[in-house]
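Worked example

This section walks through a single chain of length 164. The input is the sequence exactly as stored; nothing has been trimmed or padded.
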Amino acid sequence: MQSANLLHSIFHFSRLPGVSHKFCDISLWATAIVTNSLAIAQIVSETNHELLFAGGKLQKQGKSFVGPFTTAIIDSIVIDTAFMSSDGFMDGPTTFSHEEMEVKKHVINRSTQKILLSDSSKFSKHSTYTFAKCSDYDYLICDDIKNQDKKRIEGIKSIIIAET
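Given that input, the structure is written out below as tokens.
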């Protein structure tokens, strides 16, 4: 699940049977939404929510901003709930970008509640940089978990399987 699809994924998961958690309903979110993703900023800009854009150096492949400007903005705010994705899992969620790893670590440190979104294909993949431990997350929302993949996500406090 790419960062560009993250907000779309929240909407998708929130509509599936068995997923009725209030954090999936964007209308219940706080008035301010912080993102470093161009795609999410575009979606949020068409809502009534205040948008705080954590700019910096544009990472063209992921269409997100990274670097010291981005992390400085993140470090100056308190994040109630963070929705994050990963490229894979190996001793925790992973990403291919060192700069994205740094941004994600700052978000985790500034967030009260952390929610990881993933589709089941990510459990059998891994990428270069681990940015957190599974135990750092309060929730994992995913489509399915095979028995052989359960060890990869061990430590997440609550797992929500979106029924399809």
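What to look for: The longest helix spans residues 98-110.
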